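Appendix B. Chain record.
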Amino acid sequence: MRLLLISNSGKPLYWWCKKEIADFAGDKEVTFISAATIYDPNEYYQKAQESLKEVGVKLNHLNLKSPQDLINKTQVFLVAGGNTYHLLKKLKTNGMLDKIKRKVLDGAAYIGISAGANIAGPNILTTNDWNVVGSTYFNGLNLVPFNINPHYNAPQDKVLTSAETRDERIGEYHVFKSNPVVVMEEQTYLTLDDNKVKVGGRGKLKVFTKGRKSKEFKSRENLDFILMK
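Structure tokens predicted for this chain:
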């Protein structure tokens, strides 16, 4: 498999990771999935199209009304950000989730940005999003054996705030689940090519493994170990 998992926010859309997306896609057309947005999917697609055409990426929009034979022809998926619960629910109820997974396992490349990265793991229980859609389905594509948590900030001094930190919430997750959780700072990404996993971008990531101390990694460092059962 080939995956590019990105932690991204800010405007203009994809301002810092356009080249990475273009390099990953190569000369192939990209199927853009806008289902994570709770607003206007066509407007979202148009903004992405405008941004990525600057680096030569051609997008085809797979919205919930698209003929699903587009999935069968896809060589590269780009599953965009938004609300993770909304994304997963829409893909599942419209019969697209399993088709996308099968296509990726058969060789299509996968780009997941924020919510799109969240659904690449076993489940979405470590997302930052609120379940405003009242979804009861939480299983991800399980393309990788770890959860993704994007938009990570290191915990602040507890003297200054009593708020529960992201690290503490991941500790709670590991009371019930055993798979690793990878947290990614903004402008950070992971690439997976077969069994090779590498960190890229301007930030760092941290790997939380149940029963062990978390460990930080920076750009160009290797994470192959995280694929081991």
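Further analysis of this model is presented in Appendix C.
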